[in-house]
Amino acid sequence: MKRILIIEDDKNIAELERDYLEANGFSVAISPTGEDGLSRALKEDFNLVLLDIMLPGTDGFSICRSIREHKEIPVLFVSAKREDVDKIRGLGLGADDYITKPFSPSELAARVKAHIARYERLSLSSPPAGERLTQGDLVIDIPARRVFTAGREVTLTNKEFDLLAFLARHPNQVFSKDLLFDRIWGMDSIGETSTVTVHVNRIREKIEPDPSKPRYIETIWGAGYRFHGEEQEAR
């Protein structure tokens, strides 16, 4: 049975989430404080974490950052903070999704299932042994999930790496935001295409010599994004 950790200080919301998830076959644990939630997330085995932002003690952003430093399990923010800046910050820290309150419990359960299924597909997939993509000073080591630029390793979140690797594996092809969201996040992208833009911008900040004049991930206005594949090698 898949295990879900809910880090939420509002008892009514936490119990609502728990009831719907248990009705969908999940085992659920609840932590009402940030410190307790982070401790359990790091020490116990969970398949996914549902995380509020405004918590007593350690806030959700700090918890997400700490989880990402140690584990690759899906993390979904469920928050009353609806501002774009909060969504951008949460996704930039490596969260897999951002759901605003009030939410549809059935949609929440569906998103949880989709993220766990996608994570399991990625975990079971076996990339070609030694596959390494090289473009100029950029090196993407697919099996090791490591990225280097000009000989320096850069740290990407799971979604950032998945997005970069997907684009690099399909050089010179233009992909719409909708298609990228569907391929990387594994669900319909209604109202969520800004997530792709956020991640592309974060990737550029980390791998581009000049993010304002991207060399690797090009914006094709009105169409989407394209990985510049001139002289790219796969070995």
Characterise this structure.
About 40% of the residues lie in helices and about 20% in strands. With about 240 residues, it is an alpha/beta fold. It has two domains: about 5-125, 3-Layer(aba) Sandwich (Rossmann fold), CATH 3.40.50.2300; about 130-235, Orthogonal Bundle (Arc Repressor Mutant, subunit A), CATH 1.10.10. Strands 2-1-3-4-5 form a five-stranded parallel beta sheet, sandwiched between helices. A five-stranded antiparallel beta sheet has the order 9-8-7-6-13, covered by helices on one side. Helix 4 (about 85-90) links the parallel strand 4 (about 75-80) and strand 5 (about 95-100). It is elongated and about 55 Å long.
